[in-house]
Design brief:
Length: 127
């Protein structure tokens, strides 16, 4: 979100050879930089594995700052898709997904009033 305007962000994840550290790129700020800790905890507490290999996560567009905890759920789903736990990636791309992930449950995300406007701007999106 920029002010009261929301914009779509695509989460792109590559899990490759090599050891962590994991990299989060695409002008991530504040809570977004901390997201991997929350996502790792939430995935493990939900019975899923967190990648032990090097992972690069790009938040596109790369030239726009991203803030807030609403990226937790999209990151978690992207990690599960990159590990082939979620098999239907095309179906996943059809949705606008946002949400904060504490270590045990999904909670509301700030800025939810602006996001339906953003979702209507996405062709074929289901918010």
């Amino acid at each position: 979100m920029v002010g009261v305007d929301a914009f779509p962000v695509e989460v792109e994840i590559d899990i490759g050879a090599g050891m962590p550290p994991h990299r989060l790129v695409g002008l991530a700020e504040g809570a977004v930089k901390e997201a991997l800790d929350r996502v790792k905890s939430a995935l493990k507490n939900s019975g899923f594995d967190f990648p032990t290999r090097k992972m690069t996560i790009n938040l596109a567009p790369a030239d726009t700052r991203k803030e807030g905890s609403a990226f937790d759920l999209p990151l978690a789903l992207g990690i599960l898709a990159a590990q082939n736990v979620l098999k239907d990636r095309a179906r996943l791309r059809a949705y606008l997904v946002l949400g904060e992930l504490p270590s045990t449950a999904v909670s509301k995300a700030s800025g939810a009033r602006c996001r339906p406007r953003c979702s209507r701007a996405l062709p074929g999106s289901r918010a």
